[in-house]
């Protein structure tokens, strides 16, 4: 059975599915030099293979997995988290980024910091730190790793799930919930786009659980996966991945 990699090299074109609703992995109408993290990764991989690059923006995991299986895209680079159920329909690469469930919490919901230099001051740095607060309420995009995490960890609290992150953020800014939950990379990029949020909200981005951001490839195509994994390993070794991470998640130059 031939690998999808053979077909890519034969047609001299790599078709990559990207996430059209997840900046800065993919940025619509991007600024010059800032196409998005996954867009830059896709271009580097196409260059490594010596083929042309074609981009197809999609939205849901089901769309990505169906189109990979159908051959209409070859690989998905979409800020995508791995999990066991997803792994039944695609083969995941080794992770190229690490993230964690994170939160943006209303400052007024947190207890005031004690005055003076009291060593036992409790600071809130991760979502798990919120467990000591009464009357918690969360907003989150539905059917995501972060949604599942909330159901496991904070199932006794009010959890409102929405079809998009933007609607879930609205629930926070309108005061309907105390905390918006997404992965830490999303929270960091949100604060780059809307720095004014820092006045009213605290980012809780310390790790509570490893979330792997990986490429999705055709199921059981180990030749293709091995090729991509070597490519990612070399980009990590040479600092390219870290450079892209800093460019998009620690800086705001990409913001339109």
From TrEMBL:
Pfam families, sorted: SBP_bac_3 (PF00497)
Keywords: Signal
Domain Solute-binding protein family 3/N-terminal: 13-252
Domain of life: Bacteria
PANTHER family assigned to the protein according to its UniProt record, in alphabetical order: ARGININE-BINDING EXTRACELLULAR PROTEIN ARTP, MEMBRANE-BOUND LYTIC MUREIN TRANSGLYCOSYLASE F
Record's protein name: ABC transporter substrate-binding protein
